[in-house]
Amino acid sequence: MCAATAVARAPTPPPPASQAERDFAAEVERDGGPAADAVLQTLAKAKLQQSILDAIARPAEATKTWAQYRPIFITQKRIDDGIAFYRDNRELIDRIATQYGVPAEIIVAIMGVETGYGKITGKYRVLDALTTLAFHYPPRERFFRGELKQLFLLGDAHLAFPIDELRGSYAGAMGWGQFMPTSIAKWARDEDGDGRIDLWASLPDISASIANYFVEHGWSKDGPVAVRAQPAADAKPLADPGLNPVYPLQQMEAWGYAPIEHVDAATPSTLLTLEGDKGVEYWLVFGNFRAITRYNKSPLYAMAVFQLAQEIAAGAAAP
Q1: Concatenated DSSP letters of 204-220
Q2: 60 pLDDT band (50/70/90 cuts)?
Q3: pLDDT exceeds cutoff 50 at 130
């Protein structure tokens, strides 16, 4: 091979780091992470992904009604797969459920809605996703720079794979439960005690991390999540009541929204209306519903998790 050919085939060096990247690397080092030069070397491996920018601009929760959203997640296959998964791992899931006070079916349903019980954990390198959004998505660059920073602060020693090998969603969420780096840092658990947090292959770590997330976000053991309401003809209109359960259930009943299942009258609640395939659905939702929205702020997401969990629980209990 001639020298000219060798030169022609030499890899193209990465572009020089931007000032924003240099400032970011210095901040990571200052806050106890790797040296700035090492951070910049890792960032140089990241690739801008236009498909990530396209995806984040059109989340399903923002564009679909409940009638359109529900069939995406509440399918017979997802229900059957959830029942089978729970039965196959009942001893572990039940132990975690008892330990944390979060129902087994809720833990399983999160796995089902997020990743199809671990089958679809994301095709993007987390480094690419977070770098793309941290430096090329101005509407939320502050949030994603914080997540990218936390990824470096976690370091390879506490994760299942090196930083530049981690794969996840277009937003940088990882594992069966789709945890962002800050969620891993704050709420993930090394349940199997091997010194690493593996949200891809360790079911103890995965299950305990999901359960602990709910506990830390206000889950109430044995508390209700949501019940359908039958509105009276003269029910009081409630303009945007929000998802915080601030009204005692007896107040909702006095306003004309009667639950179709028994719930203690003093339980804090609020009203959620959804556009279902048969018209408007009225739901009374409680603190545990609010806790699910801390996993994903969309009420459509929370309702999908709740209803999938109900189907899984019923199926797993059947002979």
Answers
A1: HHHHHHHHHHHHHTT--
A2: low
A3: yes
Catalytic residues: 114
Count of CB atoms situated within 10 Å of the CB of 80: 13
What is the CB-side half-sphere exposure of residue 219 using CA atoms within 13 A?
20
CA–CA separation, 291 vs 225, rounded Å? 9
Q: In this model, does residue 149 exceed pLDDT 90?
A: yes
Please work out, in degrees rounded to the nearest 5, the angle formed at the alpha carbon of residue 105 by the alpha carbons of 282 and 259: 25
Q: How far apart are CA 232 and CA 230, in angstroms?
A: 7
Q: What is the pLDDT of residues 193-209, one digit of tens each?
A: 999 999 999 999 999 99
CB within 8 Å of 104: residues ≥ 6 apart = 86, 90, 93, 94, 96, 97, 313
| DSSP annotation string for 160-194 | SS-GGG-EE-TT--BTTTTB-HHHHHHH---TT-S
Strand partners for 276: 279
Predicted TM-score (pTM) of this structure = 0.91
Q: How confident is the model at residue 300 (pLDDT cuts 50, 70, 90)?
A: very high
- Spatial separation of the C-alpha atoms in residues 273 and 173, rounded to whole Å: 29
Q: Please, are residues 172 and 181 in contact by the beta-carbon 8 Å criterion? A: yes
Mean pLDDT of 246-268: 96
Using an 8 Å Cβ cutoff, are 209 and 97 in contact? no
| 247-248 vs 226-231, strand pairing mode | unpaired
